Amino acid sequence: MIRVSVVGAKGRMGGHVVEAVRGAADMELALALDAGDDLTLISPENTDVVVEFTVPSASLGNVLALVAQGVDVVVGTTGWTEERLEQVRQAIAAGPRPGGQKVFVAPNFAISAVLADHFAVQAAKYFESAEVIEMHHPDKVDAPSGTALHTARAIAAARRAAGMGPMPDATQTDGGSRGQVVDGVHVHAVRLRGLNAHEEVLLGNAGEQLVIRADSFDRGSFMPGVLLAVRRLAADAPAGLTVGLDSFLDL
């Protein structure tokens, strides 16, 4: 049995994780902690893998504390930057298990979103234009979403590797309506009651368009990816920091 502790257990996502762990035949819930609880209660003696689903302002501190305690961590909180990820790498190197510690960070745990991101990267080098639209419920605290940022950066990297130049855009003044520019890719964020988590990648050439869309209608759609990450960290995932669920899929 894989002993799993959940940090952020009373949150929207954390509550789903608690129920998913309880429903998994190969896992048992060790501890369910939330804001204000003592993270030092979690240790290698009672936990194999921690799942951290909190808020961006608290996540980095939580992860650094858990690394210092020598436990492996699956992180579902968004808002991660390269600077924050580097702090995690340094913490792993200085931690109690520098050769065996595992931390996994996922911009998105939905299999559909991971595949959409993968397909968009494959397609990006064949299209002159690409933009990302992400749509979420209005209670989401960050914008653009971590998934959209990850998608935009991956599209930009694929375009650079293919030797492509800047995308055409004759807009002069727009008052911000063109969205945030991420490595040259425009990213648009929609917050609307009734939505859950949705992303569209629009790719265009003269006379043609490709639309890649992923929809998660319920938070339960993220749980298979969370449980997959837990199982991989408990088994054969490489030591150190791993980013992206695509690392654990046969893509």
Compact description:
This protein has 251 residues and is α/β, with parallel strands linked by helices. It has helices spanning 12-23, 56-68, 82-94, 111-124, 146-161, 223-234, and strands at residues 2-7, 27-33, 49-52, 72-75, 102-105, 129-136, 180-182, 185-191, 197-205, 208-216, 240-243.
Give an account of the 3D structure:
- The protein is 32% helix and 26% strand.
- It has 251 residues and is of the alpha/beta class.
- It has 2 domains: 133 residues, Rossmann fold (3-Layer(aba) Sandwich), CATH 3.40.50; 107 residues, 2-Layer Sandwich (Dihydrodipicolinate Reductase, domain 2).
- It has a 6-stranded parallel β-sheet, with helices on both faces.
- α2 packs parallel to α3 and α4 runs parallel beside α5.
Instruction: Tell me how many strands there are.
Output: 11
**What string gives the helices and strands in order?**
EHEEHEHEHEHEEEEHE
Instruction: Report mean pLDDT, rounded to a whole number.
Output: 94
Shape: elongated
- CATH class of the largest domain reads Alpha Beta
Described by strand count, sense and barrel closure, the largest sheet is: 6 strands, parallel
Report the portion of residues in β strands: 25-35%
Number of helices: 6
Structural class: alpha/beta
Poorly predicted sequence stretches spanning 5 or more consecutive residues? none
- Termini Cα gap: 28 Å
The value of Rg in angstroms is 19 Å
Lateral strand order in the biggest sheet:
2-1-3-4-5-11
What level of helicity do the residues show? 25-40%
State the domain count: 2
At CATH level 3, the topology of the largest domain is: Rossmann fold
